[in-house]
Amino acid sequence: MNVVHRRYCRSARWRHHLDDLLPWALEDVSLGPDSRVIELGSGPGQTTDWLRGRVGHLTAVERDEHDAADLAARRADVQVVHADARDVPLPSGSFDAVLCFTMLHHLPSVAAQDQLMVEAARLLEAGGVFAGSDSRWGPLFALAHVRDTMTLVVPGQLPARLVAAGLQDPVVEWRRDALRFRAVRP
Predict the structure, then answer these.
(1) Which among 113, 103, 114, 55 is positioned nearest to 79, based on CA atoms?
(2) Backbone φ/ψ region at 100: left (φ over 0), alpha (ψ -120 to 50), beta
(3) CA distance 48 to 131
(4) DSSP letter string over 33-69?
(5) Are 107 and 151 in contact (CB under 8 A)?
(6) N or C: the chain end with fewer CB closer than 10 Å?
(7) Is residue 22 pLDDT above 70, yes or no?
(8) So where are the chain's domains?
């Protein structure tokens, strides 16, 4: 992430945006006090903070060493794993839900996004849900990604990609600034 983008993802403004985005992204996803949830690409942990009071056991996976260490130091009630979300060193079928918020566009290619979706399917137990959101193109979004990775997710292509990753019943919906998705592991 470039410096401007990194700063924004730690801001009160971003936290306020998440208060709108996350309930919308998870509107039809059942999470509760007994759920075992893994968040792929937790970044500085603002989404993790929002999730913590809403799920049972929470694991956060973050590739950036400093973000992972900071989150682990700040959230003793979250299992933090420093790893690439495309290769998580945890057993298959360990989670009821795999969540991923506004991070797919940070991956370097569509193929890398597809690898993450395959990994999400591997981590899910049968009947578990892979759900999340990502940003859609807009002028401010593009400006925040100058000299930064920006591999946009095309909403109309995502259902087939989720099925190819080993998931079923994909649902993809979008609004002006974001898309949300969910699919189930058979």
Answers:
(1) 55
(2) beta
(3) 14
(4) TT-EEEEE--TTSHHHHHHHTTSSEEEEEESSHHHHH
(5) yes
(6) C
(7) yes
(8) 3-184
**Which tens digits make up the pLDDT trace of 139-182?**
666 566 667 777 889 999 999 999 999 999 999 999 988 999 99
Nearest to 3 by CA among 150, 103, 146: 146
Q: Do the beta carbons of residue 130 and residue 185 sit within 8 Å?
A: yes
Contact 93, 69 (CB under 8 A): no
Which residues, in sequence order, are CB contacts of 38 under 8 Å at separation 6+?
58, 59, 60, 61, 88, 90, 94, 95, 97, 98, 99, 123
- Specify the CATH number of the domain 3-184: 3.40.50.150
Does the pTM of the predicted model rise above 0.90? yes
Rounded Cα distance, 73 and 68, in Å:
9
Task: Enumerate the β-bridge partners of residue 82.
Answer: 62
Sequence-ordered alpha helix ranges (H) in the chain = 3-8, 12-25, 46-52, 65-74, 110-123, 139-144, 158-164
> What is residue 14's DSSP assignment?
H
Alpha carbon distance 153, 105 (integer Å): 7
pLDDT in tens, 51-110: 999 999 999 999 999 999 999 999 999 999 999 999 999 999 999 999 999 999 899 999
